[in-house]
Amino acid sequence: MASPVLHGRQVVVLAHGLLAGRRSMRALASGLGALGYEPINWSYQSLRGSMVHHAADLSVALRDVFTDATIDRVHLVTHSMGAIIARMALNRSRLECEFGAKCGRFVMLAPPNAGSHLTRFLLGPLACWFPQLAELSTSPTSVVNQLPPPRRMQVGVIAAKRDFVVSVQATHLTTQRDHVVVPTTHQRLVVHPEAIDLAVRFVALGQFAGESDTINPSGDAAWMNRPKAA
Fold first, then answer.
1. Where are the beta strands (DSSP E) in the chain?
2. Of 174, 189, 193, 228, which sees the most CB atoms within 10 A?
């Protein structure tokens, strides 16, 4: 595998999912860092408060990154609920409109873009304590199903074939540029070698398949014909 020669300083902000922490994203951060990207492994208390609250915090962190004049391009790599929080943060902050030239790729691993079917079993009297469950409902009127897609960032979705939290169908987004399914589970997806390979590939190429082994000077095309993990 040829190491990419990136154009300028490129940062990748990572966001984990529900019942997880930044440790769950370390393998992805390491894979990106090894190829010259600068990972920022953002974390939040996933079981406390609404996704709206977490999105507000992330939008502040993203603004710090986008307004840094030394950074040329900003990417996102997220897992599960982290993808929805990142979508909400982008929508809230309007950073895509302000800094369109800096907008890179957005990789979503097992994102509940159409909600999670598990939420229908977890509501009831617990709803007031876990507002994020209602926000991730499959109902057409839920927060996630009323959320507009990213405006400028190129979206790639990686779904888990044996996912009992988010169905493969629910991971799709109308504006996605590419979609792929990896034979693993929801939680294992972030450490699965093939999923990591695909996530890095999309950040570099803007697609999950490609033959080029070099990055052009603009940084828009990419590298490698890296073999898939067994």
1. 10-15, 38-42, 73-79, 103-109, 154-162, 178-185
2. 189
